Structure formats: C-alpha cells, structure tokens
Amino acid sequence: MAGIFVFSEDPALARQLLTPGLELKAALGQPLVALTQSPAEAQALAGLGADRVIVLKGAGTPEALAPAVASLVAQAGVVLVGGTLRGKHLAAHVAAALKAGLTTDAKTLRAEGGRLETTRILYGGLAVCEESLALPAVATVPQRTFLPPAPAGAAAAVETIDVAADARVEVLSSTPVAGEGVDIGAATRLVSVGRGFGARADLDLAVDLAGALKAELACTRGIAEDEHWLPVERYIGISGQTVKPELYVAAGLSGQVQHMVGCRESKIIVAINKDERAPIFEAADYGIVGDLYTVLPLLTAALKA
User: Fold this and answer.
1) Rounded CA gap, 203 and 252, in Å?
2) Average pLDDT, whole number, for the chain?
3) pLDDT at 180
4) Alpha-carbon gap, residue 91 to 138, rounded angstroms
5) Pairing state of beta strands 115-122 and 127-134?
6) What is the mean pLDDT of residues 7-12?
7) pLDDT tens digits for 177-207?
C-alpha cells in the first residue's frame, strides 16, 4: 500500500513520529499510516492525525518484525522509524528489502522534487550533514526531535493484521537493566553537574538546588563514568542522553561540545562557573561567573525564601 509509514516500539517516540509524518503527508499527498504492536497504543495514535493505524499481531520482537514490515510498506513513499537500537535494526532491514536509501538520526525531514531532504548532526554537533534520498526512502528519527501533534478532530480506524515473524529470531531470556528508574529526558527542569565539584558529598549542593527548583539531577560523562558519583542514566552528551528541558542549570561544567550536543536544545540554559572563559557561557542564556560552592547555596536559599 502507498503512504507515509511510521513505527516505533517506544510509545512516546511513535507519537512524535506522527509530526514529521503529517508534514510529509501534506507535501506528498499520501496517507499517513501508523504501525504498532500495541492495541492500547493504537488508540492513542488513531487520535493524533494518522489516516490508518495497523496493529501488527503476532509480530514478536522488532528484530523479528522486519520481513513483515517490509512487506506492508512495499509501496511506501517514506518510512519513518524511531531511532532506538531496535528501530535502527528494523530500518536497515526494511531499507534493504525496499532497495531504498536510509538515513539515521534525522533532525529535519522535507519532501521536495520527489526526494526526501534530511539533516543530521555530525562530530558531536560540530557539523550538520545534509542528505538527499530518492523515494522511497527510510529514515530513523531520535527521541524528542519532534513534539507529538495536537489531537485530531476525528480518530482514524484501527485495523489488526496477523503477521508472521521471522522464526529465526527468538528471545530465550531477558535481564532487566538495573537503574534508578529516572527519566531525565522527560524532566522539564534539570540541574546538571560537572567536574567543578570536588567530592561526591558536594553534590548535595546541587541536590538542594534541584529540590528547590523541582528539577531532576543530571551530569556529565566524567561524573557518571569516571567518578561513578551518579548513575549513567543521568549523564547527558554525545554518548549519553539528549534532553530538551524548559530550564537547564549547568553547574561546574565547562560546556565541552561532547556534553552540549545533548542539551543544546534546552529552552533556557543557565551557566554557573568560576572560569569566565568556559565554553558553557557561549551557549548559555544566563551566566553567573562565580564559585559554585558560594553561588548554589545562595540560589537555593533565595528560591526557598
């Protein structure tokens, strides 16, 4: 069937994919079709502007899903897949089956002249790569690149299709990843800490400020992977998480590009650093040049007053 297809095994990312999907639908004049493995999620997708929602019944894991999705989207104009590890695995299989071009981690997507024009970030944010793919084309899109669309006036019909999963792929066992269960990607306010803190116990200053701001605590890679002062799910950067909070308070971190690529799209960045030449001030909306051991308690006290 012809159309613009979107799929992600992550429910939040699946909803975000509908936003570029709707833009491509308007440009290409093709229906927007959302694929999902979850009957419950299908109802949510149906109310966000998709023309059709198809539940893939019996598809198993996304790894085993590739042949079934490739068959469904054989006449697709564009296939958008959530940029998770599993999503990229699926996208590669679908692109190969369609003999289509594939681009990953697309930040913008635009249909023009029968082609898909995309951009993505390279070298930790130092360069932007522009790519032009002939249709049909497949693209993966990272988390939080787009906001979900507004609810549509009418809900689309939900269909269920039995699909045969690739029997060569079977999950024999699984082990949950231990963690704090913190989703800093969903936080609207973050207080992020770096090497300006001299000891683990000093992070209490940032914890107090985060509490006063009703914010979550985040950190640089050095704090998580070198010092092991905070769990890895709290670190932001090129190999960590990418966030887009309303407020990002960067305390005692220099603002190296490897870190800033993960937070550069924050709405407001506040930098606190005693080095007035620190790169973080080039990205910050507001900056305080001062010792964090003096500034943080003052800010916390002012917020609690």
Assistant:
1) 11
2) 89
3) 65
4) 7
5) antiparallel
6) 92
7) 666 667 888 889 999 999 999 999 999 999 9
What is the chain written as a DSSP string?
-EEEEEE-SSHHHHHHHHHHHHHHHHHHT--EEEEES-HHHHHHHHTTT-SEEEEEET--SHHHHHHHHHHHTTEEEEEEEE-SHHHHHHHHHHHHHHT-EEE-S-SEEEEETTEEEEEEEEGGGTEEEEEEEESSEEEEE-TTSSPPPPPPSSPPEEEEEE----TT-------PPP-----GGG-SEEEEE-TT--SGGGGHHHHHHHHHHT-EEEE-HIIIIIS-SS-GGGBBSTTSB----SEEEEES----HHHHTTTTT-SEEEEEES-TT-THHHH-SEEEES-HHHHHHHHHHHHH-
pTM (2 d.p.): 0.77
> CA–CA separation, 21 vs 28, rounded Å?
10
Q: Measuring CA to CA, which residue among 139, 157, 156 is closest to residue 24?
A: 139
| Contact in structure between 36 and 45 (CB atoms under 8 Å) | yes
Report residue 211 as tokens: 């509490």
Phi then psi for 33, rounded to 5 degrees?
-120, 125
- Contact between 169 and 80 under an 8 Å Cβ cutoff? The reply is no
Considering only residues 184 and 6, tell me which one the structure prediction assigns the higher pLDDT: 6
Give the closest residue to 50 by CA, choosing from 24, 78, 22, 76.
22
Residue 24 backbone phi and psi in degrees, to 5:
-70, -35
| Tokens standing for residue 210 | 């985060």
d(CA 118, CA 115): 10
For residue 108 the two structure tokens come to: 């913008």
CB atoms within 10 A of CB 214: 10
What's the pLDDT tens digit per position in 268-301? 999 999 999 999 999 999 999 999 999 999 999 9
